[in-house]
Amino acid sequence: MNGTVGYGLVLGGLAFATFGALVGLVSGLRRSDAGFPWVLRAVWGFAACMVGSNLVMVHALVTHDFSVRYVAQVGSRATPLVYTIVSLWSALEGSILFWGLIMGGYIAIFAYIHRREHARYMQLALGTMLAVGVFFAFLIAGPANPWGAVSPVPADGPGPNPLLQNHILMVIHPPMLYLGYVGMTVPFGVAVAGLLRGEIGEAWMAPLRRWTLVAWLFLSIGIILGAWWAYAVLGWGGYWAWDPVENASFLPWLTATAFMHSTMVQERKRMLKLWTLSLALASFVLTILGTFMTRSGIFNSVHSFTQSDIGPTFLVFLGFLLVLCVGLLAVRGPLLVPEGQLASPLSREASILVNNLVFVAITFTVLLGTLYPLISEAVRGVRVSVGEPYFNKMAVPGGIAVLFLMGVGPVLPWGKPDPATLRRQFIIPSVVGLVVTAACFAVGLRGVYPLMTFGLAGFVTVITVRELVAPVRVRMSERKEGFVAALTTSALKAQRRFGGYVVHLGIVLIIVAVAASSAYVKHTSGTLKKGQVIELGGYQMKYLGLVSGEEPHRTYVAARIEVTSPGGKVSELKPRLNYYERSTDPIGTPGVRETPAEDLYVSLMAFSEQAGTASINIWVFPLVGWIWWSIPLLVLGTLIALWPRRKTAVAMAGAPAVGASPLTGGDAERGAA
């Protein structure tokens, strides 16, 4: 019963998406408003079907309906309820079904919020998004169908992948990453609509910018939580290894970050319109590439939990997207004529352009290093390995350049600068940066890149904090709609700017933590007998023996390690090895003692009950926790930038109320600006 209902809902979603995509695109290209109500109905139907199908699957998992193929594949009566529910996204078929749920939610929310705005674009945008929905609904109904029947019905199942039930972060990390990936569908639809119309007005740029920022935030959280999961679960003494699947999530993050900076130039100087839309399109294409890399099984990765045969289908879709995007940019791009020009190489718009070029260079570097082994194997028949040294050598200088530009950009003015004012603006931040560098060197820190990073972090932090407290100013030259309207516009920009600088502080925190934990990590290992002590970084670790236990879904063996910190405080860590029925190899859980200054990280590698020994790996990571602690700053800054003020702005400016007419391009368009 569950299988029949769930599959029927998927087919319903496919029908709604197909109908809505056709009506939306055809009506939009004909510039007819008659089909818009039907497109909205198709959106509601697609979303309802995707939600319903996912709820049916959750019900099948919770009730252990092993007649459903996916439940028989990942379900188990011994698995705790929380991991039973999250096993929805623990394998290929379930993850694509979950993808459909998020896509339906995104499209429905976008349609509801903007249903009375942007009439010139909405049918084209929703039609494009539903066309993407057609592809994923087709995957769920065909190559990645989770609803197949199983006969005979097994009494129990193997449970989800052990790696996915070894830490609570797996409850949060995949949904955040999917919300980031799928969220890029919305700006893709918005950008395609702008290109099909051959115009991109200020009002239409607003949802493009906001929805990209929403997806960017979720993608950022997903990447950080994924690094935290790798750190807290795998026990290898790290959080980022330039794994192909890690890179898959990093690539669209880079282009989306470049896009959000580019929109500032487009908004302020009427430049980079085509470039900005290209970045929006590239971000979506890279999410599809990332999904292909994650779910096709062509890469060997600890993050890739499936081998599948959907690779060719994804490649066809990816090829179609590339042709579509290049064709649109070539044919419709020339219509997006820039209205401004670069006034000075020492202007803010110039710094943002350089910032964009650096982000794109890093993107290309990471993409090349990730795909080169596959290209080499396809062309030469030889698989080569591209490891951390390549990525670090190429990406670290780019990261330092980005950090430098984060400080320089806010100081530079729009247009031509005044040299004397510019010098005054740079004096204090530069002095602070030099003092920080000298202080780090004085306490014994060495290394060109780390010292540059710490000095630039001080430089950027001073500038960012100064900009955070800068008052809102309204230039007389910008008061085209009167003082109140100019003040309102300036306040809206100030809100976005304030949120952006809070995010910058979070990024600085991440960069400093990565530099410190990578350059100054300490490591040792050893095999200890009961009572023996090993030292590292001022810590003394005494092996007290083994303990074992049993949980509903696993058994474990842990080593008791008594830790005496440099300050004399005594605590105990219990790194462990977890044993799952489905896995022949144990899954480790390291013991971590966290402080703001550093983490003591102890991993149990092997043990011998007969000999009474335990083999352990030990690391001391400076400042590594700052990576995870950056998440509140990223969330806070993004929420500040996104917080709606449109109604207040419209009322203050004396503009007509947005949404007075469901399908009028004029007043609704102006109100949304």
Automatic annotation (TrEMBL):
Instruction: Give TM regions.
Output: 6-26, 38-62, 82-112, 124-144, 176-196, 208-230, 250-267, 274-293, 313-331, 352-375, 395-414, 426-445, 451-469, 501-521, 626-643
One matching Pfam family is: Cytochrom_C_asm
Q: Which residues form the Cytochrome c assembly protein domain?
A: 89-296
Topology relative to the lipid bilayer, per the entry, is: Multi-pass membrane protein
Localization in the cell: Cell inner membrane
Q: Where is the Cytochrome c-type biogenesis protein CcmF C-terminal domain?
A: 315-643
**What is its biological role?**
Required for the biogenesis of c-type cytochromes. Possible subunit of a heme lyase.
Stated family = Belongs to the CcmF/CycK/Ccl1/NrfE/CcsA family.
Q: PANTHER family attached here?
A: CYTOCHROME C ASSEMBLY PROTEIN-RELATED (PTHR43653), CYTOCHROME C-TYPE BIOGENESIS PROTEIN CCMF (PTHR43653:SF1)
Question: What is this protein called in UniProt?
Answer: Cytochrome c biogenesis protein CcmF
